[in-house]
Amino acid sequence: MHLGWRRGEPWLREVKVPQNLNWQEADRNIKHPLSQWAAWGVTRANGQPLQTENLQASLVLPMGRLGPAFLTFDNFLAYVGWNESLNYSLTAAFYATRLEGAPPMSKGAGPNIPKLTIDENRELQQILSRMGHDVGRIDGVLGLKSRVAVRAVQIKLGMPADSWPTPELLARLRNGR
Description:
This protein has about 180 residues and is an alpha+beta fold. Helix content is about 35%, strand content about 10%.
């Protein structure tokens, strides 16, 4: 078992999530049984019910609650062990699902997903760092530490805690609210 890979087990599944989901549960380090995700209204990407085999999964939202959503399983950790970049690991893992015959990825809200510029990301990192959060290098590139800090502040401000930096979050932090 290289990097913890378990033969015959899944690594990643694209899913649809309801807009009323408790977004604090969307974190790579929080696992729930598939039956719990199904009970919360998470479905396969095509809207069909989840197969609730006896597996635990984490919900990962690389572009926040309006973008594509994935359930990651223990085998996904092999990708992250190989390359710690979440975006790189998700890309490689999704490509592997495509090789297995999965349909193209959903674009979620597509061009309507609110985004920050690299300069705004850098400003956000500076504000988060002044607040005492470890954001890693302040470079405008939001890595894992920055996303953890974004999530913590979203929770504190009562915003959907999807770890995705938005213009709304930046505006609230600029205004000290």
